[in-house]
Amino acid sequence: MHKLIDLTDCLLTALYPRRCALCGKVIPPTADMCKDCEATVPRVLPPVCILCGRSKEECFCKNFRFYYSGLVAPFYYEDAVRRCIHQFKFYGKTQNARMLGKAMADTVRREFAGITFDFVTGVPLTSKSLKSRGFNQSKLLAVEVGKRLAIKPAHDLLVKIYDTPAQHTMNSSMRRGNLAGVFDVVNPRAIKDKTILICDDVATTSSTINECSKMLLLSGAKEVYCVTAAVTRKAK
Ligand SMILES: [Zn+2]
Ligand SMILES: [Zn+2]
Predict the structure, then answer these.
(1) How far, in Å, is the centroid of ligand 1 from the Cα of 73?
(2) Which domains does the chain have, with CATH numbers?
(3) Tens digit of pLDDT for each residue in 95-152?
(4) Helix (H) or strand (E) holding 185
(5) 28: Cβ–Cβ under 8 A, 6 or more apart, which residues?
(6) pLDDT tens digits for 13-52?
(7) What pairs with residue 184 in β-bridges?
């Protein structure tokens, strides 16, 4: 299977040269980003706090109740990473999922070593949002992460029932209250005693993934871990 993926990859690269997801420069087919971006990309460097996903010196988890067992992210949400995620989500540059998903998988491998995941899933969108965007960025990231870590993707674990006012327009306590009852578990039997990895694009206060984790745990999941492509450096 992997050979087939590699071969398809090579053929595609011959037709469409691979470009750095951060700056657009043409890069060798085996690279994830160009050398300049590799050197300057804002990485979350270990040792990390696996509850808020930041480097230990940037940790801000106090007073927050976490339902999930851990959250990690490869990057901070700034500079080229911010642009990359923005183009991915809002301008349909879905090929950016590849570099982001690989970096997420590498971080999961490093920080959650020894944990066996039954499923990997993305944070759901409402059917209305999915229709207007055309794709779910979290699901695409979950596919990339699952492929690299050999975890089965399961995209129908959770549904988002309704849209809430954009999270970034609210402060952190409003965000948490704002999400109650927004997500629901589709089939509790499917997740009973399972260890689940949730993927999302950006974590600011972690409210969204925390709410998803809460719903999965209330419905019988054994443990929930999260990985996002980026975390903000400071809670807003
Ligand atoms: Zn670059
Ligand atoms: Zn922390």
Answers:
(1) 19
(2) 1-40 (no CATH), 42-231 (3.40.50.2020)
(3) 999 999 999 999 999 999 999 999 999 999 999 999 999 999 999 999 999 999 999 9
(4) strand 183-185
(5) 18
(6) 677 788 999 999 999 988 989 999 999 999 999 999 999 9
(7) 159
What is the DSSP pairing of strand 70-72 with strand 158-160?
unpaired
Strand ranges for 10-162 from DSSP E: 70-72, 75-76, 119-122, 158-160
Residues around the ion ligand 1 (C-beta < 5 A): 20, 22-23, 25, 34, 37
Strand-pairing partners, residue 128, are none
Question: Can you tell me the distance from the alpha carbon of 119 to that of 122, in angstroms, rounded to the nearest whole number?
Answer: 10
- Please report which ligand is nearest the Cα atom of 37: 1
Structure letter (DSSP) for residue 168:
G
Ligand nearest to the CA of 53: 2
In the reported structure, the alpha carbon of residue 175 is separated from the centroid of ligand 2 by a whole-number distance in angstroms of 18
Q: CA dist 114 to 41, 66, 89, 111, 200, Å?
A: 28, 21, 32, 9, 22
Residue 28 Cα to ligand 2 midpoint, Å, equals 36
Compute the distance from residue 16 Cα to the ligand 2 centre, in Å. 41
**Burial, 11: exposed, middle or buried (Cβ in 10 Å; 0-12, 13-18, 19+)?**
exposed
Looking at the CA of 61, name the nearest ligand. 2
Ligand 1 midpoint to CA 209 (Å):
29
Question: Peptide bond preceding 28: is omega within 30 degrees of 0, i.e. cis?
Answer: no
